[in-house]
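Troubleshooting log. The previous structure file for this entry was overwritten by mistake, so regenerating from the original sequence record. Sequence copied from the archived sheet and checked twice against the printout by T.R.
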Amino acid sequence: MAFRIDPHVHSFFSRDGVSSPEKLIAAARERGLHGFALTDHDTCDGCRYLMERGLLREDGAAVDGFLVIPGVEISTAEGHLLCLGVWLPNGLKRTPAAEVIKMVRAQGGVAIPAHPYDRMRAGIREAALERLDIDGLEVFNAATLFEKHNRSALRYAQIRGLPMTAGSDAHHHAAIGRSYTTFHATELNARSILESLKQAPELHCQSLGLKEALRKTFHNWFRLGILRGGRSARS
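Regenerated output below.
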């Protein structure tokens, strides 16, 4: 069966996120998605929040026909890494990517570098990618401003023979599902979806509109500390 999943989504549990997890679910349903991976920056707190409210199940099953895959986007020492199907502890920021990948594998999850060629954000660059045993590569990120960066990621994945994903990188419910990945899986549950990553999922690629892009940039300024005079890592 074909399931439309957005594998890169942020809630307000990310410092630069805006929408509640419930709002993200409602918006995703309206857009015809079957689910998404909640990948807040360096924390699984949003996933725990949803599990406490019965909207995410520990066994990875869908809830009322909609699936939230637990995940996190870790700001590793080399760059941002999407970790799907896992419950990682807080405090892993700047941990070497190879160590994080080992933690992901120990839980049966998958590790996918996000926006690796986007020079405006902290993607894992090619020299580091060559040394990492990754499960796939995000080859289209809807929030990437310059299309050449997505094309470079696609070319690298093709050369290396890596499974590919496309995601919205939504930080606001209005952007969810702008890009997504169609997984051909036997069931709508986290394990089946992640296992089907190797079976050439279909990529649905559309960049954020100007309004969404400006909204994301505005909230990134807060995360960067520009408007507060602080310092932090880029999203």
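The beta strands are 2-9, 35-38, 67-75, 80-84, 110-113, 137-141, 164-167, 180-184, 202-204. Archived copy saved in two places this time.
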